[in-house]
Design goal:
alpha/beta, TIM Barrel, 9-stranded mixed β-sheet, 8-stranded mixed β-sheet
């Protein structure tokens, strides 16, 4: 009896701990361009197949796409609508302007199967959401029994015609007992909140209607054992009501989905996706390309570090009407030029009204009439007289990298009058015009977000190429955009250790080294570094430098031999650095680096008869290396951008479509002489649907003043590595240099110093290809709240999330695909072990867990209070276990003893790069 009761509770999903979580999470999205990244947070995703024709974009091992099919109605826009026989037409649904079908029509089941479902099945859909099952009731006359027989016939026909088909019914309660073995779930609309299609407005459902519908859902659930889904409708701007409605439904043991009336925004269900997009609005006239704008150079890195993806909008072009709050966490506006204020004012106020938090940097791009300012909680005040200005107050977040100095020329005579908190106030001293004591708000947090006005954003240091933040961008963005604490995808760390990468651009391979015998740089590189430091490397060559048909035919045989020997090393992966080392990859960008405005367009190594060609540079050079230099069976998987390292979408597409991972660009070079976060670049940049991944840290060229000296200057990269570790870990240890670094005694010595320093850091060495995949994963990870836990999906290669201490400590014993954590500079680095993660936190985990390792976790299974763990790395293994006192540890089936015990840690070292570790713990 107890067993039967427990099984019943599991089936009906009562709101008991752990029970609701066992139900499948469902999302419905009928609009175009379904957000595939966010929707993979759900186990079942229902889309309109006409808007989303390729189910492969949505299908994951843990998430299945379902196609919407209207059974009892047909909208005139559907391609098959005109073919519906007259006898199958019953009436019209005036609320949706659609034809209502006579389900009793003898040929309707076959028509639906062949003309509606079959084409969708051919596209690859295997799940179908059957809607409008009782629309026949809109007709004045109908035979209820005949209509229900027709519906049963439809379901049976679909099962006979499409073996393995999976179905969800929207209503159809009366026929459920007859077809329950052929359906997966039953749904119904408008349990608490609904949409009046005739009045075109959102409504609260009457209690009598709610009670009836709830009774029907419970009857299906309790008698058939099928899960039930309630779809409610709330205005998308009312996120609080959306959330509250989902909670009410969930509390009844029913799967919720609460969305807008058109099902074209991301709603809330058993899981609530944490939006990770930040809209960044910039002026396309500011710079030759997005790469060179302030918004990208300075702002995107802090956004990335906080866990967010920047999506750029050029304000000189049409903007989207609205940025849905289910997909966007906020918007930042950073403009430097004039705009049509009226147009942008309307757009800004519309986003604020939708509940989207906004941050404004530099200048207000809106009309400054009294009405608009009042809506922003501001008022215009008299400008100051000729007296002096001083900082009257400044929030601690403005104790930044550069002091605050009021500038009368940039002062906007505004004052915060609405709800909010002034961050910087300027006081005007008496100038004889009665303005003594006047105050101006230069920065504030507001009810709608926040702002920082010029000149208190970024200061350009005169006579240098350096800049300084006036405020802490992390603190301001978190506060202004009201960003909640959440686990953050992290590309700097894996298995608790900071990552270490090495990659080498091929420039200078033919150069002669200034050492005894004047060997080729390629020989010094091979002998001094590649064979000595047996950690993962990625090495490239430039075809036009090393090939017999290149610029150095006499040395070509020797250079090709050196390249073959280097590429044959097991710890070296192979890359191309192009055919002729072009300076400019994007012909639409004219940044005029050279005096001749067109020179940068044609600047590359001269090969007689050759003109620049993207395919030849990327695909052709890769083919040359594969055919002439690479060991048989060893792939050429990488391409390193050259010159300005600013490829356009076409170049990025060539590389991606050739199956190449590409990197370079960015200019992270923070040092003691340039101690600014403005010198730390973002992860990369997206262009035309492709992601360019930046090098974690810049190469020796900038540390040696464009290779003019001092040639030992690259040693300062250690400062960069140190300053991107503390107080925040912003970057991996990314050692990146050119072949020509092997030509000077000073640069050779500097490289040895850098390698030796890196190898003392207890880092996790990985190939640069592995880092690129992590950076590409960053955009595609989805994070969702799920009851008292977090659902994280899309972590195929990115295997760390950084969790603020306020969330607690990751509990691997109650989580799924979580092996442990390690405290870091600003939170805990959590080790995730797969693409579908359930992360729970506790005050103090009671079961043993992995603290850190210099290898990837390739398998993780809990075993009682212990675990089974498989590690695979590129170096002899080092790992430590936490909370493992009283547990026995075995490695590859043999009892193992720790090298030492430190606090609550047991530390181990092995001679192999892979092992399986098991712990067995006494029950407490």
């Amino acid at each position: 009896m107890i067993r039967r009761l427990f099984c019943l509770l599991m089936l009906i999903g009562l709101n008991l701990p752990g029970i609701v979580g066992a139900l499948p999470s469902v999302a419905l999205f009928y609009g175009p361009d379904a957000p595939a990244t966010e929707l993979k947070a759900f186990d079942i995703v229902v889309v309109d197949p006409d808007h989303n024709p390729d189910p492969a974009l949505l299908r994951k091992p843990y998430s299945e796409p379902y196609a919407y099919v209207a059974v009892g109605e047909a909208h005139p826009t559907r391609p098959y609508a005109k073919e519906i026989p007259e006898a199958a037409r019953l009436t019209v649904n005036k609320g949706w302007d659609s034809l209502v079908i006579n389900l009793a029509y003898p040929g309707w089941a076959e028509f639906l199967a062949e003309r509606v479902v079959a084409p969708i099945w051919e596209k690859g859909y295997r799940g179908f959401f059957l809607d409008t099952l009782d629309s026949y009731r809109l007709a004045e006359k109908f035979d209820e029994a005949a209509q229900q027989e027709g519906l049963v016939s439809v379901i049976e026909t679909l099962h006979r015609r499409f073996p393995g088909i999976r179905l969800i019914l929207n209503r159809g309660f009366e026929v459920v007992p007859r077809v329950k073995d052929k359906i997966r779930m039953v749904a119904a609309e408008s349990l608490f909140q609904g949409w009046d299609a005739n009045a075109k407005r959102y409504v609260e459902i009457k209690e009598t209607d709610r009670d009836w519908l709830l009774g029907e859902l419970r009857k299906v659930r309790d008698t058939s054992g099928l899960p039930v889904l309630a779809i409610d409708y709330v205005a998308p701007a009312d996120r609080a009501l959306t959330r509250a409605t989902a909670e009410r439904i969930k509390a009844l043991g029913i799967i919720p989905w609460v969305t807008d009336s058109a099902l074209s925004t991301l709603g809330i269900g058993l899981r609530e996706v944490m939006p990770r997009k930040i809209a960044v609005l910039y002026d396309g006239r500011e710079a030759p390309a997005l790469n060179f704008t302030n918004a990208h150079r300075y702002l995107e890195m802090p956004l990335n570090h906080l866990g967010y993806v920047a999506e750029y909008f050029d304000v000189t072009k049409p903007l989207p009407h609205e940025l849905p709050t289910g997909l966007y966490a906020g918007a930042v506006v950073w403009l430097t030029g004039d705009l049509p204020a009226k147009t942008f004012t309307d757009w800004t106020l519309r986003q604020i009204a939708s509940g989207l938090p906004m941050a404004v940097l530099g200048q207000f791009p809106v009309s400054q009439d009294a009405r608009t300012l009042r809506q922003l909680g501001l008022s215009r005040v008299s400008p100051p007289g000729p007296g002096s200005l001083r900082i009257a107050s400044a929030d601690p977040m403005f104790h930044g990298e550069s002091p605050l100095n009021p500038d009368r020329r940039a002062l906007e005579a505004l004052r915060l009058t609405g709800t909010g908190k002034a961050l910087v106030e300027i006081a005007a001293e008496s100038g004889g015009n009665g303005d003594s004591g006047s105050r101006y708000t230069a920065a504030a947090l507001t009810a709608w977000g926040g702002f920082v006005l010029s000149p208190f954003v970024v200061e350009e240091i005169a006579g240098t190429e350096q800049s300084r933040w006036h405020f802490d961008p992390f603190m301001f963005l978190r506060a202004a955009l009201r960003l909640p604490p959440m686990p953050v995808p992290d590309t700097t760390t894996e298995s608790g250790r900071r990552l270490l990468t090495v990659h080498i651009d091929g420039d200078g391979f033919p150069s002669r080294a200034e050492v005894e015998g004047s060997p080729l740089a390629g020989r010094v590189l091979l002998n001094e570094f590649l064979t000595r430091y047996r950690i993962p490397h990625a090495m490239s060559v430039i075809e036009a430098e090393v090939a017999t048909h290149g610029q150095h035919p006499k040395e070509a045989a020797e250079m090709e031999d050196l390249a073959r020997r280097a590429f044959a090393l097991p710890h070296v992966e192979i890359a191309s650095h192009s055919f002729t080392h072009p300076f400019r990859w994007d012909s639409t960008v004219k940044h005029g680096v050279f005096k001749d405005a067109e020179a940068d367009e044609s600047y590359h190594l001269e090969i007689p008869g050759y003109t620049f060609d993207l395919e030849r540079e990327i695909v052709g050079s890769t083919n040359y290396i594969r055919d002439r230099l690479a060991p048989r069976g060893k792939p050429v998987r990488l391409f390193f951008w050259t010159g300005d390292t600013a490829p356009g979408a076409d170049a990025l597409g060539f590389a991606a479509n050739a199956g190449l991972l590409s990197i370079n660009g960015g200019s992270t070079q923070i040092t003691r002489s340039n101690p600014s976060l403005t010198a730390v670049s973002p992860l990369g940049i997206r262009k035309g649907g492709y992601r360019q991944v930046y090098a974690p840290v810049t190469n020796e060229n900038l540390y040696t003043n464009l290779w003019t000296g001092p040639f030992y200057g690259f040693r300062r990269v250690i400062e960069t590595f140190t300053m991107t570790e503390s107080p925040r870990r912003l970057k991996p240890i990314g050692l990146y240099y050119h072949s020509y670094s092997a030509t000077k005694k000073a640069s050779i010595a500097a490289l040895h110093d850098i390698y030796r320093w890196a190898l003392t850091q207890h880092a996790h060495p990985i190939y640069v290809s592995e880092y690129i995949r992590k950076a590409l994963d960053f955009d595609n990870v989805v994070i969702a709240r799920e009851n008292d836990a977090w659902r994280i999906r899309g972590t195929a290669d990115l295997r760390t999330v950084r969790a603020p201490e306020s969330l607690g400590q990751a509990d691997s014993s109650t989580s799924a695909a979580v092996a442990g954590f390690r405290p870091g500079p600003e939170g805990n680095y959590v080790h995730v072990t797969g693409e579908d993660v359930l992360l729970r936190f506790s005050a103090a985990p009671s079961a043993p867990y992995l603290h850190d390792a210099n290898a990837r976790i390739v398998d993780w299974q809990t075993q009682g209070r212990g675990f089974r763990l498989a590690l695979k790395g590129h170096q002899p293994l080092e790992f430590s276990l936490a909370a493992s006192a009283g547990c026995s540890v075995s490695v590859n089936g043999k009892s193992a003893s720790s090298r030492r015990v430190s606090g609550n840690l047991q530390e181990f070292t092995l001679g192999d790069a892979a092992a399986t570790i098991e712990t067995r713990c006494r029950d407490r």
